[in-house]
Design goal:
The structure holds 2 protein chains of 2 kinds.
Chain A lengths: L1 H30 L6 H17 L5 H24 L7 H21 L18 E4 L2 E4 H23 L1 H11 L1 H6 L4 H27 L9 H11 L4 H21 L4 H16 L14
Helix pairs in contact in A: 1-5, 1-6, 1-8, 1-9, 1-10, 2-3, 2-4, 2-8, 3-8, 5-6, 5-8, 6-8, 9-10, 9-11, 10-11
Chain B lengths: L18 H20 L2 H26 L7 H17 L4 H23 L5 H20 L1 H4 L5 E2 L4 E2 L2 E2 L3 H24 L1 H11 L1 H6 L4 H27 L1 E2 L6 H14 L4 H21 L5 H4 L4 H16 L3 H15 L22
Antiparallel strand pairs in B: 1-4, 2-3
The chains are: A mainly alpha, B mainly alpha.
Chain lengths: 291, 358
């Protein structure tokens, strides 16, 4: 029973990691770059949800979509403003650029007087409710996280499989030049991918907010989503979710069974083992480059 | 415009290529030697920090700028060096011996991190070093009977026998000697076949391999040397700060170190020094600038992070070669005056080459 309890809390935490990792993978697949700003975009997403609810006074069911859409637009805008001018530069430059974007976002949120430095509670309607199932105790927050992640995954899966836009995104990620020749507007697709990644990050932020509170440094959880993306294979969307679940479950079990301190580094030990044993991850593609 | 006539083969191996080098570097050397008598004590301490960070920056420059492997966990090497130094000096080991041990221990850590680097590249290597950084940080916090854990570790002054370097000036000279030694070592290394092999690996692994460069050996060597320099820098840092705690060597420090080499200018030795100057002077400039800003902005906690981020974004967007690249442009403008053309340093745009196909 205890095992099951640990498993559920691990899965809930893993879903968050998986959602942030999904953002990394989306951007990596489309533009071959790793966005270190993903965790901070998540933080901004949570703050914008909070602002919509408290400042603008929206009810919960309007505030959440509003925050997600706003973050999507913001992501596309960010791509247009800073990422597009340096596409084609070495990946390292873009990594540094996204680190810079993360710094600025975190700094700007902290600079908002009276709001940025405090810790806030997100007023969600399901806060504090608990479901008892036999001996199991499941918090409503955890169930919402798991459920929302499932629905989002189905939606993304359907989009990439059936919609024209999703197929165009896949094409652009496999070969930009060929996609461009086929009439796919690669630049706009890149912008949309960044928007999508930011929207997914906002979802993660809104889901995480009731569990950990909203504060300017919540973006650091993004650093644990990197192991998730690597374990799943950096180029694979289902891999990101599975990797997130693996990391979440490992973390939850090591927190209970191993001595104190292992909980925080367990994800990194897993990722190092993964890199040594199977560098392409669980679902990574195995391709060869011709000279 | 300066024309260098080659009249001797030894000219190619000389460190100073022409009289201008000799003149300006001698002037710089004179200033650095005279600094304790010229510069106020506060700024001398800052200058010491610049030298320490420059030593660490040289190591990271060798790895990121010249071998093309980037490390997101360099603070871990800094930490290994600092703690080794702290523990050994507190145990009564003479300072020079402890310094060598700090370098060696860090180099060993570098070799260990280098091992996964042989199989993975690009972003995966970044992840491996990031993971290593977190594990080392947690290790420093948990291995309490050696490192003091989160309570911290006090480090005394560097001492050999009864001779203690306890003044700002004497410690400054120590850092100066180490920094100059490290710079000369790196400059020499880059002239040698080993250094050329590093640069070849950076430019193209496949062509380096086909020229007979043993990738595994040189990558590991690069990691080891880079980590050793970071460890030596860390040892000096330990004496300068005199108090070590694990959070000084977190991911933030690693990112600061990367920021230093990127802003200084990747792929140039000057860049390590310019970056170190930037890293130390920037907070001072920000606190000076606070007087001119409205109180609401000046008092905000996130100001420094915002300014750092914006400077970083501006450099990546407009000056990817960093401060040193900007200096090169200025110098060329003066040399070619009035014939400098705007497109002279234009970056070439290329189609994205896939990193996944390897």
């Amino acid at each position: 029973m205890q095992l099951l309890q640990l498993l559920i809390s691990g899965v809930a935490q893993g879903c968050i990691y998986g959602l942030i990792a999904l953002g990394f993978v989306l951007i990596y697949k489309a533009t071959e770059t790793v966005s270190f700003a993903q965790g901070d975009l998540m933080m901004v997403g949570a703050f914008s949800g909070l602002a919509a609810m408290t400042l603008l006074g929206f009810p919960f069911w309007i505030a959440v979509p509003a925050a997600i859409v706003a973050m999507g637009v913001f992501g596309a805008f960010l791509e247009r403003l800073v990422i597009r001018p340096i596409l084609g530069q070495p990946a390292f430059s873009i990594v540094m650029l996204t680190i810079g974007v993360g710094y600025v976002l975190r700094g700007l949120i902290t600079m908002i007087p009276d709001v940025g430095t405090d810790t806030h509670t997100m007023p969600v309607p399901y806060a504090g409710e608990v479901l008892r199932l036999g001996g199991l105790v499941i918090a409503a927050e955890q169930m919402v996280v798991i459920g929302a992640t499932g629905i989002l995954c189905l939606g993304l899966f359907a989009m990439f499989k059936y919609s024209k836009l999703g197929i165009a995104m896949q094409a652009a990620s496999q070969n930009q030049l060929a996609a461009y020749y086929m009439g796919i507007p690669v630049k706009q697709i890149n912008g949309l991918v960044w928007g999508l990644a930011a929207a997914v990050a906002a979802v993660a932020g809104l889901l995480l907010a009731p569990i950990t509170f909203v504060h300017a440094n919540m973006g650091f959880i993004g650093l644990k989503a990197f192991p998730a993306a690597v374990v799943g294979g950096f180029g694979s969307l289902p891999g990101a979710i599975v990797g997130g679940l693996v990391i979440g479950i490992v973390e939850s079990f090591s927190g209970f069974y191993l001595p104190e301190g292992f909980k925080d580094i367990a994800p990194y030990i897993v990722v190092l083992l993964m890199l040594v044993l199977k560098p392409n991850g669980l679902f990574g593609e195995q391709l060869r480059k011709k000279v | 415009m300066r024309f260098i006539f080659k009249t001797d083969y030894n000219q190619d191996v000389k460190l100073a290529k022409h009289g201008g080098h000799v003149f300006w570097y001698s002037l710089l050397g004179l200033f650095l030697v005279a600094a304790p008598w010229v510069v106020p004590e506060y700024w001398l301490a800052q200058l010491t920090f610049v030298l320490i960070y420059a030593v660490v920056g040289l190591g990271l420059m060798l790895l990121a700028g010249f071998t093309g492997l980037f490390s997101l966990g360099h603070a871990a090497f800094l930490g290994v060096g600092a703690y080794t130094q702290g523990v050994l000096v507190n145990a009564g080991v003479p300072f020079p011996l402890a310094l060598v041990c700090a370098g060696l221990f860090s180099a060993m850590a570098g070799v260990i991190v280098g091992l996964p680097a042989l199989r993975v590249k690009g972003i995966y290597l970044g992840m491996a070093t990031l993971a290593f950084g977190f594990i080392v940080e947690e290790g420093m916090a948990r291995w309490e009977h050696v490192t003091g854990g989160n309570a911290g570790l006090m480090v005394g002054y560097p001492a050999i026998g009864s001779w203690t370097l306890d003044s700002t000036e004497s410690f400054y000279f120590l850092c100066l000697v180490v920094a100059v030694g490290a710079t000369l070592a790196i400059v020499n290394l880059l002239r040698s076949s080993t250094g050329r092999a590093f640069v070849a690996i950076r430019d193209s692994e496949i062509s380096a391999q086909s020229m007979g460069i043993h990738l595994a050996r040189y990558k590991t060597l690069s990691f080891a040397l880079s980590a050793a320099l970071a460890g030596i820098g860390g040892a000096l840092y330990a004496h300068k700060i005199q108090f070590l705690s694990p959070e000084q060597f977190s991911i933030i420090q690693s990112i600061d170190l990367l920021l230093m080499v990127v802003i200084g200018g990747l792929g140039s030795i000057h860049g390590a020094f310019l970056g170190a100057i930037f890293l130390i002077v920037m907070p001072q400039l920000i606190s000076l600038g606070k007087d001119f800003l409205p109180a609401a902005i000046a008092g905000a906690a996130g100001l420094q992070g915002t300014v750092y981020g914006m400077v970083l974004i501006a450099f990546v967007l407009f000056e990817p070669m960093g401060l040193y690249g900007r200096w090169l442009k200025v110098r060329t403008w003066f040399q070619l005056f009035p014939f400098y053309r705007r497109g002279l340093f234009k970056r070439q745009k290329s189609f994205q080459k896939s990193d996944r196909l390897k």
